[in-house]
């Protein structure tokens, strides 16, 4: 299956669903974390889902980069 650019396919004020376009999961997690952080800064909470990706490996690395310290 060919890859295509990732896209947000559904979005609310506090959530987003990202279709990663059959790309490596690291790209989706990195982009998704940025989306979730922006939403959380505005609303105090955020949820994100990603599908159509592969090889997630250790995605926690990308999420841990964004731990917000108060």
Could you explain how this protein is built, in words?
With 70 residues, this protein is an alpha+beta fold. Helices cover 34% and strands 33% of the residues. It contains 2 helices and 3 strands. The protein has a 3-stranded mixed sheet with strand order 1-2-3, with helices on one face. A hairpin with a 3-residue loop joins strand 1 and strand 2. It is flat and about 35 Å long. The mean pLDDT is 84.
Helical residue percent band? 25-40%
**Low-confidence sequence ranges:** none
Number of helices: 2
How many strands appear in the DSSP assignment? 3
Radius of gyration: 12 Å
Biggest sheet character: 3 strands, mixed
The strand line-up of the biggest sheet is 1-2-3
Topology order in helix (H) and strand (E) letters: EEHEH
Global morphology: flat
Strand content: 25-35%
**Average residue pLDDT:** 84
Judged by helices, strands and strand pairing, the structural class is alpha+beta
How far do the termini sit from each other? Answer: 43 Å
């Amino acid at each position: 299956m060919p890859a295509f650019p990732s896209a947000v396919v559904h979005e609310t004020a506090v959530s987003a669903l990202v279709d990663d376009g059959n790309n490596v999961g690291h790209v989706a997690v990195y982009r998704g974390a940025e989306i979730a952080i922006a939403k959380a800064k505005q609303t105090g909470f955020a949820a994100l889902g990603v599908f159509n990706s592969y090889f997630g490996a250790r995605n926690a690395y990308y999420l841990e980069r964004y731990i917000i310290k108060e």
